[in-house]
Amino acid sequence: MTAPDAAAFRRAAGRFPTGIVVVGTSLAGTGHAMTVSAFTSVSLDPLLVLFCAEKVARFHDAVLKAGIWSVSVLDEESEKTARWLATRGRPLDGQLDLIAHHPGPVTGAPVLDAALASLECRTTAVHDGGDHSIVVGAVVGVGGPQDGGAQDVGPQDVGAQDVGAQDVGAQDGGAQDVGAQDVGPLIYFSGGYRRLAAD
Question: What's the CATH code of the domain at 140?
C-alpha cells in the first residue's frame, strides 16, 4: 500500500468496471448531453438515482439549472457516441444532430433512440463531491428497447475488448442475463471501452 496520489487513485479506481450512460438535459430549447460512468441506483422507495458531474464541465451548470435529466444506458455498439459526448470542447450547438434521439415524454430531456434502457429524472438534491457535484434525482419515467431503444442487431466488435464476465447477476429481481439479449452493455474498465464476453 502506498500513499495516495491522483494518478494512483485513478489507476485503482479504473480497475472497477462500470456501465456507461449518457445523461441528457434540455435548457432554453438546447439539448445538452454528457457521457457518464459515475451513475448508480440509490433507492426503490422512493425511486432515486444519482450521477456525478464535473464542476468545470458545461453540462454541470446546464443540468443543475434545468432541474430535469434523462439517462440512456449505452449498448456495446455505442462506443463512438460515448467518445463523442465525452470530448471536451465539442460544439454545444448541434452536438446531438448525428445521434438519433427523441425528447423524453415526461421531462423533454433528450433520450437516445439506441438506449438499452432509459430513465427520466427530476433533481431532488445536489451534494458537494470535491471537483464533482453528486446529483440525485427522482425517477419520473422509465423506458426500454420497446420504447425506441436498442435495435435488433447482433453484437459486433467495435474495438472494445472482452471483460470476461459471462452474464450479469440479477439485482432486485429485475435484471436478465446477457444471453437473453441480442446486444450487451458498453463497459468501461482500466481506461478503455469494453464489452461483455459472448457465451
Answer: 2.30.110.10
d(CA 120, CA 105): 9
Question: Is there a domain that residue 159 lies in?
Answer: yes
Query: Does residue 10 lie in a domain region?
Result: no
Is 25 within 8 Å of 69 (Cβ atoms)?
yes
* Residue 113 resides in a domain: yes
For residue 117, how many other CB atoms are within 10 A of its CB? 17
Pull the grid cell for residue 170.
440479477
Averaged pLDDT score across all residues of the chain: 82
How many residues does this entry show for the chain?
A: 199
What does the alpha-carbon distance between residue 181 and residue 109 come to, in Å, rounded to a whole number? 26
The pLDDT tens digits for 55-68 are 999 999 999 999 99
Kindly write down the DSSP assignment for every residue of 2-52, as one continuous string: ----HHHHHHHHTTS-EE-EEEEEEETTEEEEEEES-EEEEEETTEEEEEE
Does residue 176 form part of some domain? no
Spatial contact of 153 and 187, defined as CB atoms under 8 Å apart: no
Domain extent for 47:
20-169+184-195
| pTM, to two decimals | 0.79
